[in-house]
Every structure is written in C-alpha cells, then in structure tokens.
Amino acid sequence: MTKFTNTTSDAIALAARLPVGIYAGSTISDSVGNIYYFGGSTRSTRNRVVYKFNPNTTQVTQVGELPLELSNAIKVDDSRVFLFGHTFLDHSSIVGFDLVSYESTIVGDLGYNCTKAPGIRYKDDLWILCSSTLNPTSTTMLRYNLINGVTTAVKSFPYLAETPSLVWDEESTPYITEGHQYPGDFVIKYDLEKPSDIHFIQVKMYPGNATYYYTGMGGVYVKKLNRIYLFGGLVSIPLFSGWKNDIHTH
Fold first, then answer.
1. Backbone angles phi, psi at 112, to 5 degrees
2. Would you call 88 exposed, middle or buried from its count of C-beta atoms within 10 A (0-12, 13-18, 19+)?
3. Best exposed site among 66, 137, 222, 244 by fewest CB in 10 Å?
C-alpha cells in the first residue's frame, strides 16, 4: 500500500505491505479511516481473505474471509459493504460484509453475471458498471435498489474490455477512467440524474492510447480542488507515475 500526500510537493510513499502479493482487488474505508482490501488474486489463487489496514499503526491484519470469490466492493453505509463480481470470474451473487463484526454472508442475487463490477452508492441505489466475459460485446450500467432489491439495466456502454474504474465527484457524476481502448485519450462522464446520456471528455496527456487497453489504475476525486488524481496502472508496461486532471464541467 502507498500513501499520497497532497501538499505543495506531492509525494507518494510506501505505507505498508499485504502479507501476500495480491492484485485486482478493491478497497473501502470505514468511518474512522481504516482501509479494507477485498478480493483480487495472487499469481496462483483467487483471494477470499479480507485485510484491514490501520493508517495510525501501519499494521495490516486479516479480519475475515468471504464465502465467494468476489472483488468489487461498494460501501452501503458505515457498517456494511456489498461485493459483486470478480476480475477473472463471472458472478451474479451479492455478498454483504459487516465492518463491525467482520462477518460476511450471501445477501442476494444481482440477476446479471458480472466479471468486472465497480460501483458507487447514490441515494437509495447502487450503480454498478457490469462487464461480463460471458457477453463480451457491451458494458451495462446496473441500478440495484437497496430498498426492494430490484436490479434494472439502465444504460449500455461501449464494451470495456479491461477493468474499468469509477471516480465519483461526491454528487451525481462518476467518471469512468479506464478499461477502454480506442481512441484511449478520454474519460467517460456519466450523470446519474441523466442516465440516458454519456459524455466523452478528451484528456490532454492521458496515459491511455489507441493501441493498448489501460487498466489497473487507482483514482480519487478531491472535492475542494475539483480534481481527479490517477495513479499507476498498465498500458503495455506498468506505469508508476501519477497524473492529475482538473474537472472544469459537471
């Protein structure tokens, strides 16, 4: 795990290491700042172990194990996380993980098989960007209602062949920052209040290109700066640098 300090001299430093080398998982933070790592894979196995990182002590501990191999975590509230899909395995099941008791259980079925399924919570819905290896032609934005458990397919996107990433502006707009190929130098803006619209925003000096898929990138939105920071990722070789993109429109 690395730590990025947003000051006058932006810096990235090593914060801690997981007990084993894992990639393609997802992270969630709790109400006191602890960070949980879900899913992913080692070089030989798919990971079910849940790890907790305490930034104050820099300790990493194993706190639970999932009943299924799932990798895409969405924070539902201060005590619950729902998990969907796996980077290398189709799933329709929904697993709930309790951030207090560290217990996990299967809580429902999405009704759609998803391999890659990043998402966010907005109001009473989880918005999940679902791609499936069983249907490698399109990517679908799903809307899962937390009150009645009903899933609705809202919008079809161009197929995102690699793992997409959603960077949320904390209002109604997530930005899809990777997973696509041609032309490569853009992010996708999607307003949840206008779900029929998709906007492609060209980004200067964006590390993606028209030859290779861009995948594995971390991203965070800094509200007071109205800026997205992007870290790492893979085009044809690993990228160890960071980028920042100012968002001028909403």
1. -135, 140
2. middle
3. 137
Amino acid, single-letter form, for residue 181: Q
Cβ atoms of 71 and 85 within 8 Å: the answer is yes
- Token digits of residue 84: 């969907």
What is the rounded distance in angstroms from the CA atom of residue 109 to the CA atom of residue 226? 36
Looking at residue 45, what is its pLDDT?
Answer: 83
209 phi and psi angles, rounded to 5 deg:
-150, 180
DSSP letter string over 122-170? ETTEEEEEEB-TTSTTEEEEEEEETTT--EEEEEEEE---S---EEE-S
Q: Which two structure tokens, joined as six digits, stand for 9? A: 């001299």
Distance from C-alpha of 1 to C-alpha of 54, rounded to nearest angstrom: 11
Q: What is the dihedral of CA 74, 78, 80, 85, to 10 degrees?
A: 10
Tell me the per-residue pLDDT of 123-180, one tens digit each, with 9 for 90 and over: 999 999 998 877 777 789 999 999 999 999 999 887 777 777 788 888 899 988 777 6
Of the candidates 216, 249, 229, the one whose C-alpha atom is nearest the C-alpha of residue 87 is 216
Which residues of the chain are under the pLDDT cut of 50? 210, 212, 237-243, 248-250
Q: Determine contact, residues 131/139, Cβ cutoff 8 Å.
A: yes
Token look-up 């209040």 returns: 193
Sign of CA dihedral 12, 17, 22, 27: negative
pTM, entire model: 0.81
Query: Which residues face 73 on adjacent strands?
Result: 83
Beta bridge partners, 151, equal 144
